[in-house]
Amino acid sequence: MRNAKNIFEPKASRILRCLLINPGVAWSVRGIADEAQVSVGFTHAVSVSLLEQGYAVRNEGNGIELVNPIRLLERWASYHQFLHENRFEEYYTFENSMEKTMERLGKVSSRYALTTLSGAYLVSPYVRPTIVEMYVGDERHVQDIVGSLELKPTVGNGNVRLVHPYDEGVFYKAQDVDGVTVVSDVQLYVDLVNYPSRGEEAARSILEKIKGVWSASLLGEAVIVRQGLDRGF
């Protein structure tokens, strides 16, 4: 049974998001592959590794379930390096209010998702950010955001940073917070753990929120069995 060499590499992280963001779900390999938009063969290899490393089990119906999601999330976050794995463009906005910037951003229709401290500021306010950081789509989306926010490029550190993601999976299950798009809590936590300037503190606040959601889901609902489970491996 082939396993994956690194369950935290970019493509494999799509599978981790799928499992971590949908607590209490029992998956077939094919169901995970379809949801994460990766091949069935690769999904099978990652699933074998998760089973071997004790992060997941097969249930009575042969579905794959996480059994230690907190440990998996924390290990992934410790491996991930936001500032080294993405590509950045620095901009400056003359808007002197974070709230005004967020208000303008809420009117942007292009693909983006806030992350790090600026995302945490909306999801679970703990640290007030000094820079707005957001994942962005292709160049067309970038130009729309730059124009809508009236951003000016800068060669030094700006107060708005557009982040070209290491993998498109970062947008999976992005959330709407007061009209502004923010990455999922799982992605937010992963991005914050090794982030400087009080990122670890903000990450702890997000983790408590995640634990609450997981507890409510796992204790309050029966395990959902994905359709097509009988086609799983």
In short:
With 233 residues, the chain is α+β, with helices and mostly antiparallel strands.
Sequence of secondary-structure elements: HEHHEEHHEHEHEHEEEEHHE
Low-confidence region ranges: 219-233
- Secondary-structure-based class equals alpha+beta
What value does the Rg take, in angstroms? 19 Å
User: Can you tell me the overall shape?
Assistant: elongated
- CATH fold-level assignment of the largest domain: Beta Polymerase, domain 2
Percent strand equals 15-25%
Helical coverage, percent range = 40-55%
Number of domains: 2
CATH architecture of the largest domain: 2-Layer Sandwich
* Nearest-integer average pLDDT: 90
Beta strand count: 11
**Helix segment count?**
10
- Report strand order across the widest sheet: 5-6-8-4-7
CATH class of the largest domain: Alpha Beta
Keywords:
233 residues; alpha+beta; Arc Repressor Mutant, subunit A; Beta Polymerase, domain 2; two-stranded parallel ribbon; 10 helices; elongated
Give structural notes.
The protein has helices spanning 10-21, 29-36, 40-52, 69-79, 82-85, 98-105, 116-123, 139-149, 185-193, 199-220; strands at residues 25-26, 56-58, 64-66, 87-92, 112-114, 132-136, 152-153, 160-164, 175-177, 180-182, 224-225. It has 2 domains: 10-73 and 218-231, Arc Repressor Mutant, subunit A (Orthogonal Bundle); 82-210, Beta Polymerase, domain 2 (2-Layer Sandwich). The protein is 45% helix and 16% strand. A hairpin with a 2-residue loop joins β9 (175-177) and β10 (180-182). It is elongated and about 60 Å long. By secondary structure, it is of the alpha+beta class.
